[in-house]
Amino acid sequence: MKEIISMIVVAGPTASGKSDYAQQLALAQGGEIINADSQQFYQGLDIGTGKVSFKEQKVVHWFLNLLKPGQLMSAMDFAKRADDQIREIRTRGVLPILVGGTGFYLRALLEGLDDLPPRDQEQRLLLEKRLQSEGPESLHQELKKVDPLSAQKIAPQDRSRLVRYLEIYQLTGLAPSSMMRGKRPNHLRYPVQVHWLCPPRDYLRQRIAKRVEHMLASGWVEEVQGFLQAGNPPSSWPVKPIGYRELQDYLEGKAHLDEVAKKIIQKTCQYAKRQETFFKGLFSHQAYTKAGSSLNIFREKSFFDRLLT
Hints:
Elements (H helix, E strand, L loop, with lengths): L6 E5 L6 H12 L1 E5 L25 E2 L12 H17 L3 E6 L2 H9 L9 H14 L1 H11 L1 H6 L5 H14 L19 E6 L3 H17 L2 H10 L14 H8 L5 H27 L10 E5 L2 H7 L2
Helix pairs in contact: 2-3, 4-5, 4-7, 5-7, 8-11, 9-10, 10-11
């Protein structure tokens, strides 16, 4: 029988205060934090991803700075690594606190994945090279031909899933959608206490604008400039974190900083809206209130005023 491990999950859109709230919980309950924000896996992507710096860390943090920007980690990879880390933390009598806004990765860990073929490094490298040379639109068109259902659900910008779905097709000759279960599980893999941070949308827009302004004042431009000087421009990365390519355009003289800042704020607001939609669908499932699990939703502006001031 699979070992049952309890933990806290802190989820919500970008700029909702997840990191601060998780650290408060960890300090109060003797926990350690596992990062589930896919952009914060990457070395050097610090200011623009809102990563908690080493100086700001009041408790132990796991899964920060795991990868270089040229690498990818699938939801399956994350779930396997997180399983191991959760067990290790629990064996020491410590509470794991999973924190992030990448809903697909959280779902993979909490609900499990379908019986799909494991990663094939050779196929994946070929697809990643094609992604670099041809661009995501080309691969998305290919997925549309072999699996229209999956192509409808995956945006061309979602490079990690795009590569994974084409990899599955090449390994099996089957459309990935035909291999995936239609129903979600009745029970989660772990009994969890979910803390869903869901600030009012207008409030979140203001937070995002202030956050982008603070990031730019804190050296985000210089962070991107460092990648350019190292010959590793954001435009060459398989991952596309918001803001990095836009700031590359500014540094290359293709756009004014004010225009870039507005574009970053707009894209971040759009991303936050997609996160909210995903979490609404995720946490509405009955499994999140069954078998020892609980769902706590924080919506009041007063809560976020206290948290973020």
